[in-house]
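Q: What does the assembly look like in three dimensions?
Context provided by user:
Components: two
Sequences:
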Amino acid sequence: MIQIFEGAQWANGLPILDGMYRDRKKIFVDLLGWDVPVVDGAYEIDQFDDEHAIYVVATNEKGEHEGSIRLLPSRRPHVLGSIFPELCDGAIPVGENVFELSRACLSPRNRAARRLQVRNAVTTAVVEFALLRGIDRFTCIADSGWLSQILSLGWDCRPLGLPRDIAGLNTGALVIEIDSDTPDKLRTAGTYVPMRIVHAHADGRAAA
Amino acid sequence: MIQSQEFQSIIQAFYDAKDEQGIYETFDHLTYFLGFKYFAIGHHVDLLNPPIASFGISNYSSGWLNEVFHERYFMDDPIHFLCNGRHAGFAWPESHLLNRLNERHRHILERGALRNFQSGYTIPVHLPGEYSGSCTFATPTSGTIAHNVLPAAFFAASHAFEAIRRLARTAAGLGLEPPPQFTDRQREVILLMGQGKTYAEMGMILGISRETAHQHCKLVFRAYGNIQRCNLIARVLYDGIASFPEMLRKQ
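A: Here is the predicted structure of the complete assembly.
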């Protein structure tokens, strides 16, 4: 199942998001060795995980985190604008309908075939959510480990500038254009997953 | 220093290309733009019997291509060999890479150097569930690679690979079927088949009858179009449904 969470919460928050921060720590800190903050020795949570962050999260039948991605509004501080602006050779794309994708994470507990299904489901959900919200552009930063997979998803993806060597990896900024044709482009690429998307925030707010 | 605008317009040109000719011309432009002379991009497959939706494009001389085909160098390509297990691009020849090559690999590399492939930069492309591929840029002079262009080379090559992949998939009628999905029980019998168990042994291990174990296996074979048992093992490993450690662990 895919759930959308609007606004970060951790510690006494939601078990699903806690599982996501834990898997992010396993992937980005333990496996890839990124220099990013770790909270309580277990959760990878940075300055952008705030009330403006949106998370698209895939869970299994037990409600455990299987994969996720973070959407940040471009009008607020975000990774490309605040940390790596030099990857963009023109103006950094900013606007109400422009969001940044970051922290794409697949659970290390799943094996390759399942990770691929989750990757496609999260991507489809990101596209459907964008169409629902009127988001027409995503920016993202890609390094050599992920670039081919991002491109192979089938959407329109172009460079924003010359890539650079950052911490030994070829790294560049990309822009992904989203319009009503994007779901068909995913279908052609074989990455579209028909699904129902649950807005987890609605229940949370009603309860609060 | 290379120009960002030109870099971006070259990548756009790859996606706008309608056919192999358009791709070839754009690649020629990109190769010159990056300061190289030769390029080759494609899947690492048997070039004499290329599988569906695979591709290969290069501006190598016909003399070298004839030698590659005639001597079947593509089956033991040293650069393709060095792509195994890595995502990052690599410049060659570098001594720590060359140490991993065997006699036949070194021979092919020396023959290439005689044909003016003195040094180069190669970008591996590994997509889950697909044939591996790569893109190589080469120069006829040794030690002239400008390392500051390599990130641009990596990104441009990755975009080019994707643009050609889309053309090839469309031309092949999108002939890439997603792998079948299996239940937990079906995956258990797949692993046991990989471990060489008989139906009776599977039944004992799983606490079910021999006949029931056989039924589970039959459904697995059917999901792959009545595949043979040996071929099934290769397919499930290739499709990522099972991994080598799972298959090879002791019961």
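Follow-up: The mean pLDDT of chain B is 90.
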